[in-house]
Design goal:
The longest helix has 23 residues. The chain has 142 residues and is an alpha+beta fold. It folds into 2 domains: 39 residues, no CATH class; 100 residues, no CATH class. Strand 3 and strand 4 form a beta hairpin. It is 51% helix and 19% strand. The chain is built from 5 helices and 4 strands.
Length: 142
């Protein structure tokens, strides 16, 4: 982009291009550069849940959306919802060995603060990977 901007300025200096036209061209170059950087930074939070009842859930959410939603409602509220849901589901499910997993595979102990930390610090990779005999919860940032 720097070389292209220098060419535009050189054309203005030589009188081959008006300053207004040069400004338009520079603006276009900057917009393209911004679009490229946004495309490179766009990450996805992928959540995969396989339940003992053979339910399969796959959710892909843009990371920026997740950040804003967690900040809007607060990580404490989300953690409370997860724990309450897992507790309710666990009271209705049959024995699941050592892992406390609900009937749709929501484990107790998912720490929303850990997930938020990974999101806020632009970490990539696996965040949660919990498997039991017939359930799996997998959360990854790509």
């Amino acid at each position: 982009m720097k070389e292209e901007m220098l060419r535009i300025l050189k054309m203005v200096e030589e009188g081959k291009l008006s300053s207004e036209k040069a400004l338009d061209m520079i603006s276009i170059l900057q917009n393209r550069a911004n679009e490229r950087s946004v495309a490179k930074k766009s990450k996805i939070l992928k959540i995969s849940v396989d339940s003992p009842d053979k339910d399969v859930v796959r959710v892909n959410i843009p990371l920026d959306f997740v950040k804003n939603m967690i900040k809007a409602v607060g990580p404490g509220y989300i953690q409370k919802m997860i724990n309450q849901y897992a507790k309710n589901e666990n009271t209705t499910s049959q024995g699941t060995e050592n892992l406390s997993v609900g009937s749709i595979g929501v484990p107790e102990g998912i720490d929303i603060n850990l997930i938020l930390y990974a999101i806020e610090n632009d970490l990539d990779g696996e965040i949660v990977n919990i498997e039991s005999q017939d359930s799996r919860v997998y959360i990854v940032i790509e």
